[in-house]
Automatic annotation (TrEMBL):
Binds 1 heme b (iron(II)-protoporphyrin IX) group per subunit. Belongs to the peroxidase family. It catalyses: 2 a phenolic donor + H2O2 = 2 a phenolic radical donor + 2 H2O. Keywords: Calcium, Disulfide bond, Heme, Iron, Metal-binding, Oxidoreductase, Peroxidase. Heme b binds at H32. It is an enzyme of class 1 (oxidoreductase). This is peroxidase. It comes from Trifolium subterraneum. The keyword Metal-binding applies. Its EC number is 1.11.1.7. Substrate binds at P2.
């Protein structure tokens, strides 16, 4: 799993190594339309972005106040929040959140602040069908990365079924 501190350039380079282009990166990051994140993954962003002792300036102030409340400095960092504002709906809210400065992870928000990925984020925020199409293409490419090894179906993504599962390429 790439670091949640990653910026878009790092992510573009990483994905390129697996023949996943900028469009795949942005569309696949849309997987964060659902799921949970631990406070652990955003503490640096809230309190010490890039060693500055300050929060990430790309954060919407209202959203930052919500996150500060969810994850105060003395929080149990296993506490979780939602990755987007509509966590159990497969939709393009994730991209709308990024445009509004309400991306949960630094690696999410950076897709909007970086010029190379900003246009795609904006496009998917206004055109859900474009997002769905690109997501399908990206998922097919992602699936092909493991073609020589058996995968496994898990009831809970964090619970490994096979004791020696196929190595995860990105996840
Ligand atoms: C682009 C680079 C990516 C980064 C830096 C990243 C990072 C993360 C992080 C840090 C978390 C939260 C982990 C935690 O706090 O426990 C997370 C959750 C998640 N990610 Fe990503 N991710 C990326 C791409 C992807 C991709 C490509 C997919 C799927 C195709 C994906 C699907 C998910 C899901 C479903 C969750 C929620 C897991 C849960 O609820 O337990 N992510 N990601």
């Amino acid at each position: 799993m790439p670091s949640p501190r990653s910026n878009a350039t790092t992510l573009i380079n990483l994905f390129q190594k697996y023949n996943l282009d900028v469009k795949d990166l942005v569309a696949l990051s849309g997987s964060h339309f659902n799921g949970k994140v631990r406070c652990f993954s955003i503490m640096f962003r809230l309190y010490n972005q890039s060693g500055s002792g300050k929060p990430d300036s790309a954060l919407d102030p209202g959203f930052r106040a919500e996150l500060d409340k969810l994850c105060p400095l003395d929080v149990d960092q296993n506490k979780t929040g939602n990755l987007d504002a509509t966590p159990v709906i497969f939709d393009n809210q994730y991209f709308k959140d990024l445009v509004g400065g309400k991306g949960f992870l630094n690696s999410d928000q950076t897709l909007f602040t970086f010029p190379q990925t900003q246009g795609l984020v904006r496009l998917y925020s206004i055109d859900q069908n474009e997002f769905f199409k690109a997501f399908v293409e990206g998922m097919l490419k992602l699936g092909d990365l493991q073609s020589d090894q058996l995968g496994e179906i898990r009831k809970n993504c964090r619970d490994v079924v096979n004791p020696s599962p196929a190595p995860h390429v990105l996840y």
